[in-house]
Design brief:
This protein is α+β, with helices and mostly antiparallel strands. The chain has two domains: 118 residues, Nuclear Transport Factor 2, Chain: A; 138 residues, Distorted Sandwich (Glucose Permease (Domain IIA)), CATH 2.70.70. Helices cover 32% and strands 30% of the residues. The strands form five sheets. Strands 7, 10, 12, 13, 14, 15, 17 and 18 form an eight-stranded antiparallel β-sheet that branches. The longest helix is centred in the N-terminal third of the chain and has 83 residues. The N and C termini lie far apart (121 Å). The relative contact order is 0.10.
C-alpha cells in the first residue's frame, strides 16, 4: 500500500468516525427522551386518577348534602302542611308528596353587599325564572331581615310537575331546627309569609344607638337594605342606595333622630309620603314611605318626637322606613352617624298559621 492510499484511508476514517459517534449520541438522546415521556405519562395517569377520586368524593359529599337538605325540607313541609292549607288566599295541593323539590345553598356574601343579589344568582342557577327569583329574594329579606341571611343556609323550592318555574312553597332554613315558609297566593306571583313553629315568640332584633342620637323606630324591626350600591328591588338594576331600609309593621311610629325643624313634609312617586328635618351641625334626616302625611312643615321638634308612621307608599315593595341622612349636603351612611347597635332583650309574638 503506497503512501497515497494510506493517507486516503486515514482521511476517510476521520470523516466517518464523527458520524458514528454522532449516531450513538442521537440514540442516547432518544432513549432519555423516551424515558422522560414514560415518567411523565405515568405521573399524569396518577395525577388524573387522584383528581378523579377527589372529584368523586366531592360529588358524593354534595349529593349527600343535597339529599339531607331535601329530606329536611320535605319533613318540615309534611309537619306544617295542614296548617299551610288553612292560610286563606293561597294555592296549594292537598299534599306535598306530589311536589318536586330543589334546594339552593346561600353562597358567601361579600362584605357590605346586599344578599338579595347572591340569592337571586343562586336561584337562577337552579332554573328558577328571573321574576320568581327576584320575588323570592325580596320576600326572604323583607320578612327575615338582611342580618338573618348567612352563608350555608338553604332555600327549599317546592314546585308542581308542569310548573317548574312557579314555586308553590318556598322554605328558608335558618338552621337545623328552624325554617320559614312563603306560600304562593292565588294571585299571579305573590307570596304570603308564614313563620315556622320555632319562630313563634322568638327573640327579635331591635336597634339602638351608641350616640346622642335617637333610633327612629322602637320594637321589632329588620334591616332589609344597607347603604351603598345594590340591585334595586323595583327597577331591577344596580343603583346606589342613599340610606338604610328597616322593615317594620305598618303603622309603627317613626321618631326624629334629634332636635330640629321640619323643612319638608310632602309626597312624591318615589319616596311616597316623606318628612325632612334639619338639625344642628349641617345634618338633615329624611324619612320616606310613610303611611300618610307626617308632621307639618315648619314645626320645631325634639329628639324622639313622633313624626309619622311606617307605610309602603311610593316606590316600595312592603312596609318599611327608608332613613336617609345628609351631612353638609352629601348623603352619608345613617348607621355610621347614629352608631347603630343591635339590641336583643325582648320578645314579640309573631305571625302564626
Amino acid at each position: 500500500m503506497n503512501r497515497l492510499s494510506i493517507i486516503t484511508m486515514l482521511l476517510l476514517l476521520s470523516a466517518i468516525l464523527p458520524f458514528a459517534q454522532n449516531s450513538k449520541s442521537i440514540e442516547s438522546r432518544d432513549a432519555r427522551i423516551k424515558e422522560a415521556m414514560e415518567l411523565r405519562d405515568a405521573y399524569s395517569k396518577e395525577h388524573i386518577k387522584k383528581r378523579e377520586e377527589a372529584y368523586a368524593k366531592r360529588d358524593a359529599y354534595v349529593k349527600e348534602a343535597i339529599e339531607v337538605r331535601e329530606a329536611y325540607f320535605r319533613e318540615y313541609a309534611k309537619k306544617r302542611w295542614d296548617s299551610f292549607l288553612k292560610v286563606p288566599g293561597t294555592s296549594l295541593p292537598k299534599s306535598p308528596d306530589s311536589l318536586n323539590i330543589k334546594t339552593v345553598e346561600i353562597p358567601k356574601i361579600k362584605e357590605d353587599e346586599n344578599p338579595n343579589i347572591e340569592i337571586i344568582d343562586a336561584l337562577l342557577k337552579e332554573g328558577i325564572s328571573e321574576e320568581q327569583a327576584v320575588n323570592i329574594a325580596l320576600e326572604i329579606i323583607d320578612s327575615l331581615g338582611i342580618d338573618a341571611i348567612k352563608e350555608g343556609q338553604s332555600i327549599g323550592i317546592f314546585t308542581e310537575e308542569n310548573k317548574a318555574e312557579t314555586p308553590v312553597v318556598v322554605s328558608y332554613m335558618i338552621d337545623s331546627s328552624d325554617a320559614s315558609a312563603f306560600l304562593r297566593n292565588n294571585k299571579a306571583d305573590g307570596y304570603k309569609y308564614v313563620e315556622s313553629e320555632a319562630g313563634k315568640n322568638a327573640k327579635r332584633s331591635c336597634f339602638t344607638t351608641n350616640s346622642s342620637y335617637v333610633f327612629p323606630l322602637k320594637g321589632s324591626c329588620r334591616r332589609t337594605s344597607k347603604f351603598g350600591m345594590r340591585e334595586h328591588p323595583v327597577l331591577k338594576k344596580p343603583k346606589k342606595h342613599e340610606g338604610v331600609d328597616y322593615g317594620a309593621a305598618k303603622g309603627n311610629e317613626i321618631y326624629s333622630i334629634a332636635d330640629g325643624t321640619v323643612i319638608e313634609s310632602a309626597f312624591n312617586n318615589v319616596s311616597g309620603y316623606y318628612v325632612v328635618i334639619i338639625h344642628a351641625g349641617g345634618l338633615s334626616s329624611h324619612y320616606c314611605h310613610l303611611q300618610e302625611m307626617g308632621i307639618k312643615k315648619g314645626v320645631n321638634i325634639v329628639a324622639g318626637q313622633a313624626i309619622g308612621k311606617v307605610g309602603s307608599t311610593g316606590r316600595s315593595t312592603g312596609p318599611h322606613l327608608h332613613l336617609g341622612i345628609k351631612q353638609n349636603g352629601k348623603w352619608v351612611d345613617p348607621e355610621k352617624i347614629l352608631n347603630v347597635a343591635i339590641q336583643q332583650n325582648f320578645t314579640t309574638k309573631n305571625k302564626e298559621v
